[in-house]
Specification:
A hairpin with a 4-residue loop joins strand 1 and strand 2. With 177 residues, the chain is mainly alpha-helical. Helix content is 51%, strand content 2%. The chain contains nine helices and two strands. The relative contact order is 0.11.
Length: 177
């Protein structure tokens, strides 16, 4: 992980194999998506520095057309600036249009950051997160053998989790300010 901070952050992959591995991995997942192949959970593949799926990218583009004028989901591969912008607008939508409507039970059950992280990892669509926020659905806990959206949300906000890593890459490294 430290080597990602010293080089190009878009190359970060937990199974580090060298410079450019992150972009090569994204290209493979993009090609698989074009063929209709995903990891088996039906939500599609995620690409780019922020691992975004196509549906939330397209939602953000529809909500903020002036911010994503001529950009497509496939453009996330190798374009860290676009990936960060797309993630920021997606999280803004999840906060404003889903978390803002959370029931008291949902609010006391998790922090806002955990809710947003679980929502992002649950496909990133406003509709899905809204249904969880209003108590009509729950984030998957992985007991069915599928992706644990609850664990993703919890691991993101724990000390040393994704938020801490993002802060290190984006702020402490000087890459983005």
């Amino acid at each position: 992980m430290l080597s990602a901070l010293e080089g190009d952050p878009s190359s970060y992959n937990p199974k580090w194999t060298g410079p450019g591995s992150g972009e090569a991995y994204d290209k493979a997942r993009l090609e698989a998506s074009l063929l209709g192949i995903d990891k088996g959970h039906g939500a599609g593949n995620s690409i780019g520095l922020t691992n975004q799926k196509e549906a939330p990218f397209n939602e953000s583009k529809a909500r903020y057309p002036d911010k994503f004028k001529d950009e497509e989901w496939a453009d996330l591969v190798g374009n860290d600036d676009l990936a960060l912008k797309a993630a920021a607008y997606n999280l803004k939508s999840l906060q404003d249009e889903a978390a803002a409507h959370a029931t008291p039970e949902v609010r006391t059950g998790q922090t806002l950051n955990q809710f947003l992280s679980s929502g992002y990892n649950a496909g990133g669509t406003v509709d899905r997160s809204y249904n969880v926020a209003t108590g009509n659905q729950v984030f998957n806990d992985g007991s069915d053998g599928k992706n644990s959206e609850v664990e993703h949300g919890a691991s993101t906000v724990k000390p040393g989790g994704t938020f801490d890593l993002a802060n290190k890459i984006l702020c402490e490294s000087g890459a983005f300010r």
